[in-house]
Amino acid sequence: MIKAGIIGSTGYAGAEIVRILLNHPETEIIWYGSKSYVDQRYADIYKNFFELIDDKCLDDNIDKLSREADVIFTATPQGYLAGILNRDILSRCKVVDLSADYRIKDVKVYESWYGIEHKSPELIADAVYGLCEINRDKIKNTSLVANPGCYTTCSILAAYPLVKEGLIDTDTLIFDAKSGTSGAGRSAKTANLFCEVNENIKAYGVANHRHTPEIEEQLSYAADSDVMVSFTPHLVPMNRGILVTAYASLKDKKINAEDIGRAYEKYFRDEYFIRLLGQGVPPETRWVEGSNFVDIGYKVDERTGRVVMMSALDNIVKGAAGQAVQNMNIMFGFEERMGLELLPVFP
Amino acid sequence: MIKAGIIGSTGYAGAEIVRILLNHPETEIIWYGSKSYVDQRYADIYKNFFELIDDKCLDDNIDKLSREADVIFTATPQGYLAGILNRDILSRCKVVDLSADYRIKDVKVYESWYGIEHKSPELIADAVYGLCEINRDKIKNTSLVANPGCYTTCSILAAYPLVKEGLIDTDTLIFDAKSGTSGAGRSAKTANLFCEVNENIKAYGVANHRHTPEIEEQLSYAADSDVMVSFTPHLVPMNRGILVTAYASLKDKKINAEDIGRAYEKYFRDEYFIRLLGQGVPPETRWVEGSNFVDIGYKVDERTGRVVMMSALDNIVKGAAGQAVQNMNIMFGFEERMGLELLPVFP
Amino acid sequence: MIKAGIIGSTGYAGAEIVRILLNHPETEIIWYGSKSYVDQRYADIYKNFFELIDDKCLDDNIDKLSREADVIFTATPQGYLAGILNRDILSRCKVVDLSADYRIKDVKVYESWYGIEHKSPELIADAVYGLCEINRDKIKNTSLVANPGCYTTCSILAAYPLVKEGLIDTDTLIFDAKSGTSGAGRSAKTANLFCEVNENIKAYGVANHRHTPEIEEQLSYAADSDVMVSFTPHLVPMNRGILVTAYASLKDKKINAEDIGRAYEKYFRDEYFIRLLGQGVPPETRWVEGSNFVDIGYKVDERTGRVVMMSALDNIVKGAAGQAVQNMNIMFGFEERMGLELLPVFP
Amino acid sequence: MIKAGIIGSTGYAGAEIVRILLNHPETEIIWYGSKSYVDQRYADIYKNFFELIDDKCLDDNIDKLSREADVIFTATPQGYLAGILNRDILSRCKVVDLSADYRIKDVKVYESWYGIEHKSPELIADAVYGLCEINRDKIKNTSLVANPGCYTTCSILAAYPLVKEGLIDTDTLIFDAKSGTSGAGRSAKTANLFCEVNENIKAYGVANHRHTPEIEEQLSYAADSDVMVSFTPHLVPMNRGILVTAYASLKDKKINAEDIGRAYEKYFRDEYFIRLLGQGVPPETRWVEGSNFVDIGYKVDERTGRVVMMSALDNIVKGAAGQAVQNMNIMFGFEERMGLELLPVFP
To answer: Which of A190, A199, A239 lies at the smallest CB-CB distance from C195?
Structure first.
C-alpha cells in the first residue's frame, strides 16, 4: 500500500485521480491539495464523494508532502511545478506531472509555445514522457513522469504506427481534434458557461495550440526525422471525450487497408487499453466514456491516396488521470491495469 | 460463482445490468437474451463492451434459460413476463423482474392502469416488492422479486420515513419528478430523437402515469391507510438521472426541521446506498450519476407549513439495474454492496 | 420613430431586447449601456450582431440617457435602479425596469426577501406591474413599468383565471418551476459552467426564492385575499425556456375540465401571446422558444380532486425582453404585437 | 403575392421553409405536402405553429400542385423528385429542389455515389446549382434550382475564393465538417435517439459521403480543372449548425494573410449573407443560429505553409430552407433578402 498526494486535487483532472485511486487496491490518498479550498471538506466541493471521503483540503506544500507520500500527482497550471520541483523532492518520492512542464525536451520550444520561462530546465532530461504504450520501459525507471496532454495522447496514438512504419508522408499530417468541455477546466470563465458552450461548436487555438509541439516531438522520434503538423482543436458541447480525425497521404499507392491494419496490430495488438476497430469503423467518444480505453479506427481512401486515422478517448481518463495512474502502476511495479479496469459508461 | 441470464439485455437497463455484473465477483453472465438482435455479437450493439464481451445474443427462451442459470433478470415490456412465467421456472431459479408485472398486489389495479390482462395473477402473491431498504427481509426468502420502477424508488424513499412516522398529511402528497431520457428506452421513436428532446422540457402522463399506483400502494403500507397522491413525470434533456421534488403539509405546526431529520435518520442512517443531505441541501442528479446512491434532502417551510422532500438517483442504476443486482445479492446471501460500490462519475 | 436606450445591454436579457428592437419598425436603439464593456463594440461581445450593429458600448449614465431617449430599458442587478431613479428622469422619458426594484408594493416585503434597503420607496406607488395581459390599462398611463420576473410571468398566468374565478383553493397552490440556464445570467460563476449544468437537474432557492412574494402579491389581487404559495425553481440543462407545473385542489368536487377551460377562455381567449392548449395537453418549452408566446394546458385529476396547471414560455422573451417591448408598445400606443411576431424556432 | 407549395413539409427542412415563408411578404403557402401525415393538422405535428397555421397536410400530388402554385419546394428523399418531375410541370411553375437529384451534372457520378438510377436525366441540364452567391445570374433564368446540400454550401463557400484565385493547391484540400443533428432528419432511427447522440461525437460516411462529389464538381468549375478532395462529416450533440474546418497548402510561400483576405473580399465583400471575420477569427455556429448567414474566417499558418479555412452556418437555414427561399427570391425577381433578415438567436 503506497501513499499518494495530489496537488491540484480540486480541478476536474485532480478529481478524476481521486475517483480512480479510491478504488485502487494498492494506493491510499493522504493529501488532497488545493489552492482555493484549503480547510474545506473535499466532499463539499465534489459532492459525488459525500460520505465517501472525510478529508479536508490541504495546501500545496510539496516539500512537506514529499516527506509523507510515495507518489505525488500534480494537476497544476503550466509553470507551477517547474518553479518548485527539485532533485531533493524527487529523491524522496515519485512525481507524475499532469502539466506540460516536463513534456518537451527542448526548453526553448517549451518557452516559445507557452510564453513562460522554465524555472528548472535541468530536470527536463530526468523526465520521461509518460505515453505508457510507447515508453513503458523508460517509465519503469524514472522518478518523474511528464504525463501527456489529452489531445496529444489521442493524436499520437492514432498516427504512431503509421509514422513508425513509414507508411505515411509526415509532411501531410493534419490533426483535427474535437474535445468535450471538461478539458477547459473548472475555473469560472464566461466563455465556458453553459449557455456559451451548449448548442455551439468552434475551433480555437488555430495553428498555435500548445499541444502542437508535443505531438511533433513524439512523432519526430517515431519518424526519426523532424515532423511538423497542423493541429486544430475544437470545443464540443459535451462533458467528456476527445475525437481525433487525422489525415495523411500514403507514401505509396500500393499501400492498402491491410497494410495499415498490420501496422496498428504490430504496435498495439497486445495493448489492453488500445482497442483497434479496423478499417472503416469510426470510433465514438460515447464508447470510451469513463474508461481508460483509446479506440482507434481508420479508412484508406483510394481516390485521394490518403488514410484517415481516427481515435477516441475520455480526456480526463486516458487523456489525464487514468494515464497518470497507469504511469504510477508502471513506476511502482504494480499490474499496469490495476484500478483502471473501468467499464465505459453508456448512455 | 452463480450464473445469470438476462432477458432483454439489449435495452438500456439490460445493458446496465451487464456493466454491473461484469465486475461482480460472484456472478457470471451466461445468457444475453434479446428479441431483436439474436445471433448478433453483444459488443456490436453496445460497442463500449468491444473486446470485453465475446458472446452473441441468444433468444428469450426462459424455460431453457431457467435450466442453466441461477438467476434471471427480465428487462422486458409490460405483460411479457406475466405471460411466460410459472412455478416450474421459479422452482429452478430466482427471477428479478424489472418490468411492472408483479409489483402491484391488486391485479385489478394493475390491469386498469396498464390496460392489459395479467396472465399469471396467481404468482403475484409470491412476488416481493424489491425496494431493498424497506423489504430486505422478505427479499431474502423469495424466488421472485418485482424490481421497483425508477420514479417509484426515488419517490417512495423521499417520503417513506415521514409517512411512516406520521409527520405529514398524506392527503396533500404531490410528487413532481424529472427524468433523464434513458428512461424512455432505446426503441426508435420520433418523440425521443435528439432534436425533439434537446432544448426542451415537458410533462407527460399527467395524472395517469403508471408509476402512480405503485407509489400509492407502498406508501399505503407505510401509512397503514390508503394513500392517494399526485405524480407528474417530466422529460429532461440529459441521459441519466431522476430528481423528485415532493410536497406535503406537516401534520402539526410544531414539527420542525430536526423532527424531519430524525425521521430520515431513523430509517436510513445505516443504509449505505442512501445519503442524507439534511435540511436545506437539495440533491442533484450529477452527484449520483453512474452509482447506486440515492441522495435525499429536505426543507421545512414554516411559512406554508409544508415540507419539501427532494431525492436524486441514477434511473438506470438504483432506479433499475443497480437495485436489481442489490436484490440478487440479498437473495443469494452475498454482501449487499457486492459489485455495486460504483463511484459517481462527474463531470 | 422613438429612441431607446438599454442600461445593462450586455446581459442575456439586454441582448434579447437588442434582437427584438432591431426589427421593431418604430424604435431605434441609441444607447448600448454596459458596466463591463464600455467603449467596446457591441458586436464584439455578441458576435451574432456582427455587421448588424456598429455601435460601441456606452456607460450607464441614466441622467444623460434620459435626455436623449424616449424610453429606457434597465436590465440591471437588484437595487441598482432604485438607487439612481428619480421623478426628474421619469418626467423626461419612460422606463421599463427588468429588475425587481419596483415590482413589490410593500417595501418591507421587498427588503426582507431581497436583503437590501430600497433607496427610492417613494417611486414604488408610481410603478405599474407590467404583466401586460392583466394590467394593460394601467400600463398605458404610466412612466414606470416594473417588468415581471420570468418565473412569475409563467406562474401567474397559469393560475390567474382559476384564482380569479375562485375555482381553486389558494391555500393548496404549489408551483414547481423548471428553467433553462440563460436565466442564471452571463456572469462567470463556477456553478454555471457547462460541465456543472450539463447532465444535471437540481432545485435551488427552495422555499426562499425571491420570485415567491411577487407571485403571491399578484395572485392576492386576483383572489382579493392573501395568497401564500410554495414555489420551487429548478435548473435544467438547456439554454432557454421555463416550464411551470402548478398544483391546487379544486374548491368543489363538481368542478370539471370544462369549467376550468371556460375560465381560461374567459380571460385569455383574445390574447394573442397566450395559447390555450386545453385539457390534457402539456405545453413544452420547445414550442415557444424564441417567441413571445405563453402556452398553457391543464389536467383535472378527478382521483385527487386537483387541477394540474402547466405553462411554458421563453424566459428571455415573454419572461424578460419580449414582455418589456410589449410594455413599451402599450406605453407608446403602438400596436401591442409590433416587433413581437417572432415565430418559435424549432428544432 | 405568389403561391407556394411544399412537398415534404413535415421534415425539419420543410418546417423551416414554413417558418420563413410565414413572414415572407410576397408569398403564401397553399400546400403543406406530406407522405406520413396527410389530413392531419400541420400545427399538430409542429406545435410551434399552434394558432398560426390552420391548414391540414395534403398529399404529394405534384401534378395537381403545379397547377395551383407558382413555386414548389421539394424536401424529399433522394431519387423521389427525379421520378416524378417533367417538363410539363416545369412549364407551369418553378421548382426549388432540396434533394440532390439535380445537383450533379454527370449522371453517372450521381448514380455511383447515390446508388440509385436517375429517372429523369434529361432534366439535369436544365437545372441550375442554387449556390446563390456564385450562380445568381443563372438562377434568375431557370425554372429548376438544385438547392445545394448543407455541408456543401458551407464547404464550397469557405474555399471558393482561394480556389478561384489559384492561391491554394487543390490536391491538398481537406474538409473536416461538424454538423448538428437536425441534419439527420426527423425519421425515427435508434442512432439518432437523444441518448445515442448526446455526450458523443463521431465521424461517419468517411471517404464516401454523398456531398463529396457535389463539392468537387463546384470547386472544379472554380479551379477550371478537376478537383478531388477529402471530406469527413461528424455528428455533434446540438440541434443546428455546421462548422467546416478546411485545410490546404498555399501555392506559394509568399502568399500571406493579406492575400487571402483580399481574395475573400473580392468575391464576398458585397454579399449580405456572407460575413467575413478575417484572419485568426474562428467562426462559431452559435453566432449564425436561426439566420441565413455564413460566417467565414481563416488562418494562414506560416510554419506549415497551409491555410486553415473555417466557415459556419445554420444547416437548416443557409444550408437548406433559407437558401431555398433566397433562390426563390432570385427566380421571382424579389429583393434577395426578402423574408430572410432573420437575426441569429443567441443563446
So the answer is: A239
